[in-house]
Amino acid sequence: MPENSAPLPPVADLLGLLAYAELVAFDQMAADARLAPDLSRRAALSEMAAREIDAYCRLAERLRELGVEAEEAMRPYVGALRDYHDQTEPKDWLEALAKAYVGDGVADDFYREIAAFLEPKDRDLVLDVLHDSRHADFAAEELRAAIAADPKVANRLSMWARRLVGEALSQAQRVAAERTALAELIASGGGDVSDVQGLFKRLTTAHTARMAAVGLNN
Amino acid sequence: MPENSAPLPPVADLLGLLAYAELVAFDQMAADARLAPDLSRRAALSEMAAREIDAYCRLAERLRELGVEAEEAMRPYVGALRDYHDQTEPKDWLEALAKAYVGDGVADDFYREIAAFLEPKDRDLVLDVLHDSRHADFAAEELRAAIAADPKVANRLSMWARRLVGEALSQAQRVAAERTALAELIASGGGDVSDVQGLFKRLTTAHTARMAAVGLNN
After folding, report:
1. Cβ contacts of residue A177 below 8 Å, gap of 6+?
2. Quick check: A26 and B46 CB within 8 A?
3. pLDDT tens digits along B95-134
4. In whole angstroms, what is the distance from residue B132 CA to residue A7 CA?
5. Are A117 and A191 in contact (CB under 8 A)?
6. Domains of chain A by residue range
7. CB atoms within 10 A of CB B84
8. Nearest-CA neighbor of A12 among A89, A69, A87?
């Protein structure tokens, strides 16, 4: 079955994307936890990974309510998300944290924007399952401490962050080309398609501020 | 610091072993989830992995109540559990399930026996965080179906299970030689040390029954 064959209701399309993103984030964080320099940091990241699965379960449950199997709703996104993660495998603990901080930051901002077009029930669910700030705070603190201890780290991680964003944009374009339901969702929800530029600008501004907050440069 | 330098209260010694076992089981199940043949099985195993972290958090919390850092209590077991998992890396989905089914089965039986020597509060905690039967049932069902579809699979997995048990016993002996606190726990709790043979017999009987239940032979 080709990846984009199943026509889903627009909201299921978004929930499927989010559900698969949670499943993959779980997987990635669980693997990253192995890179932790000690047991308490490893436990901290493992705990955060477990929260992704809780979020996954809630999204899968909502999809079932909508009469859609989670597997069916997630399938269109498998290729793009797998390729993103394959292309951006962290080599060490700091790269793993920078990826979580930068990548999840942009993704969460994006989902938050899209959630505004949903019915209240689904909007609240999406806003609720997005990463709590605990994860970003933990990553930011580790990154700041590492850069303070060795300022050269900032250059290496800034380059890494630019690669992450480039790879994410490339996969996002692929998804946008293959899936029109998300675009429909924005249109049907009263979203102004001409505001895509505005959306892009807001995401970029927030990303730049996030980078600066830990001492990385764009 | 040598692995066995810190003298801990006996109960912290057991809780530390269990906590680290949960952290490692999380890690292993999260990695095994990648071997799943489809997204729904992958999600099922990821969910089970997340439950291990919930258990870890409860054990770490109890250790803190006892005035012991989880990291300190876990440290003595890092070498043995890491070596066990390094020596028994599953090559495919069925090996991963057989490892979870056989290995967690024996380990849970062992913890359940030791829990009998604890004060009620800790005993209830340990019994509560042991794997619920959902995980074993899932693994058993998958193994039975695979053996029904191809009886030759039973031979390969039976050999694999024997290797798992051999490797686990070898690491258990290592832990027993390095850590006397668990032995003290049994003695102080009124446990009859001469019953170690009885314990061993009960574990072996339960293991044999578990193997037979899915069509594997000892």
Report:
1. none
2. yes
3. 999 998 998 888 888 888 888 888 899 999 999 988 777 7
4. 38
5. yes
6. 10-213
7. 20
8. A69
Distance (Å) from the alpha carbon of B207 to chain A's nearest alpha carbon: 30
Question: Whole-angstrom Cα distance, residue B151 to residue B149?
Answer: 7
CA distance B167 to B217: 18
Q: Taking residues A81-89, report their average pLDDT.
A: 89
The answer to whether B125 touches B58, Cβ cutoff 8 Å, is yes
**Domain A10-213's class?**
mainly alpha
Lowest-pLDDT range, A141-145, B5-9, B35-39? B5-9
Q: Which site among B1, B22, B26 would you substitute to test the A interface, given the most A Cβ atoms closer than 10 Å to its Cβ?
A: B26
pLDDT digits (tens, 9 = 90+) for A165-196: 888 888 887 777 776 666 666 666 555 555 66
d(CA A80, CA A21): 10
Residue type, B14: L
Token reading at B47: 């969910």
Q: Is A38 in Cβ contact with B53 (below 8 Å)?
A: no
Amino acid at B6: A
Q: How far does A195 lie from chain B, in Å, by closest CA?
A: 35
Instruction: Give the pLDDT score at A188.
Output: 62
For residue A49, give the chain B residue with the closest CA: B50
Residues A46, B26: C-beta atoms closer than 8 Å? yes
Q: At what angle do helices B39-65 and B133-149 cross, to 10 degrees?
A: 150
Alpha-carbon span A52 to A130, nearest angstrom: 9
Three-class DSSP category at B63: helix
Three-state SS sequence of B127-167: HHHCCCHHHHHHHHHHHHHHHHHCCHHHHHHHHHHHHHHHH
Q: Name the residue among A20, A39, A74 with its Cβ closest to that of B71.
A: A39
Q: Are A49 and B47 within 8 A, CB to CB?
A: no
Number of residues written out for chain A: 218
Query: Cα dihedral sign for B91, B97, B100, B101?
Result: negative
In this prediction, residue A1 has a pLDDT band, given cuts at 50, 70 and 90, of very low
Helix (H, G, I), strand (E, B) or coil at A37: coil
ipTM, 2 dp: 0.71
Contact B26 A40 (CB under 8 A): no
Q: What's the whole-number mean pLDDT along residues A3-11?
A: 65
